[in-house]
Amino acid sequence: MIGQHTLKRFFKRTAGRAAVLMEPLIYRPAYLRACIFFYHRVADIGFIDPHLDDWNVPPSTFERQIAALADFAEVVALLDLPARLRSASPVTKPLVALTFDDGYSNFYTQVLPVLRRYRLPATLFVITSMIGRPDPMPFDRWSQRNRNRVSEEAWRPISWPELEACSESGIISIGAHSHNHLKGSDCTRAQFIEEAERSNELLRARLGESQALAYSYPYGNTSMGHVSPEYVRAVRTAGYELAVTTDLGLASRGSDLYLLPRVEAHALDTSATLRAKALGVLAPYHFVYRLRIANKFV
Asked: Is 4-293 a domain of CATH 2.160.20.10?
């Protein structure tokens, strides 16, 4: 029987090829849009679990992707996107922002050095109750299952000293990915408030008032009920300037700043695939996205 992750990779590879073929044919609108890419793990793993998604991009692949983005895109900080989308500056390159969810230590060891080399900004979203944890994060089923097959770097949550170094780099903004990584569809109003406010308080107390200005909803799919209006109100009230979902799409000047869509950066993405995604050639991915929402595969 074909594993769920194997099937998911097949669909994503097929969607990527279709997007590259469609890219020369698409109509490019005159108004400015932005592709907010999101990553999770960047580590050397060396195997594919056919049943569980590792949400991983190998370091060598990641550097190739960053080199490509630095070449063909205008990469800006996430917090600068609202102003950039409202500006009258001419559109010369696809507009891109980089985000990373969960907060693995490999962001510090693998991602930060690459971003420094290419001088590109990014936002790291961390789960504040998991910072410095000595074991895999409880929601990370892949790490729970495979921790003994890989180095600790592949699953270890980032530590406070590593976060401080990222913050001090001048190119990394630290945002919140909640306090406990609860699924929004299962939360009470009190839990929404705790998830948003507690993470904000902890990050600002340790890293300063310039951090914790952006929020990433765990799971993050509005169609699946992960991001309710009540959750959005809690995030807004906690003091965040914007928030991102996992809804597939490009951001525009008319986007709700607390429901910004994003596009996954996958290990299968070539420079041509990334360019197609950044330009908004997302129809093939919307097909895969609808399959996910329909629970055909996870």
From this structure: no
* 10-residue mean pLDDT series, the chain (298 residues): 56 59 55 91 94 96 98 96 86 92 98 98 98 97 97 97 97 98 96 98 97 98 95 98 97 96 96 93 78 56
- Output the six-digit token pair for 154: 């592949």
The phi and psi torsions of 247 (rounded to 5 degrees) equal -60, 135
Which residues make beta-bridge pairs with 122?
Answer: 172
So what's the pLDDT on residue 25?
A: 58
How far does the chain reach from its first CA to its final CA, in angstroms?
16
- Count how many residues are written for the chain: 298
Tell me how many degrees the CA angle 120-205-177 measures, rounded to the nearest 5: 55
Write the CA distances from 115 to 64, 105, 112, 262, integer angstroms.
12, 15, 5, 20
Q: Tell me how far apart the alpha carbons of residues 97 and 191 are, in angstroms, rounded to a whole number.
A: 29
